């Protein structure tokens, strides 16, 4: 793969940073990899499996090298507009294929509804659509409690509650927020509040705006984009897996299993390792299908 080049683009309220890795086959559809709040660095290993395609990655507006120029909290529609600008700047009008992970998958479903003719195939991997769950009220109350804890007590307590919820299997009990809070130390998190409130996951309204977003299912179904809802083989029962299945049902498509877990494509980035070899092979199989 040719060495990546780094670029910036202005968007309303933000300056976005993105990377382009030119592929060896100009006839191959470019592959865009997006996540939220995870930055482009998280796709470093996975991008290396697609040297035949031009690969585009970026840092969402609240993450890493990108930065906000407004105090307004971004929404999935905001991110969808950012991604549209990114694609136009990086590879032109399209078509492109997209792997979207986590909050990036939420943003890309908003994108497809707004820009139906740009994406050929979208693989939406574990979008955390709490809005789609049968236990949405209890689950969203738990999400709001995570946000409120972060705003009140800081990163350690807020992230501990987030991890406890993310690791919970099955429906969220109605009394979830009344249960004892997990100890941040058990996750290796700080117990003291450093006063900062700019965490890409827990700050900027991200966790509430992403999980509470309700996609325009009719617009997505009407788009020519092939939408593949995917979840990891190790994610059974978790909120992200249950949400993926619920969204697939709403769109009338069969969900697809990918190897490993929520970060199955990671090869050591952020200290986490999934099964990137198998994940990449499955992604190529789906994109070529």
Automatic annotation (TrEMBL):
Residues 52-173 form the AB hydrolase-1 domain. GO terms for molecular function: catalytic activity. It holds the Pfam family Abhydrolase_1. It comes from the Bacteria. This is Pimeloyl-ACP methyl ester carboxylesterase. It comes from Kribbella steppae.
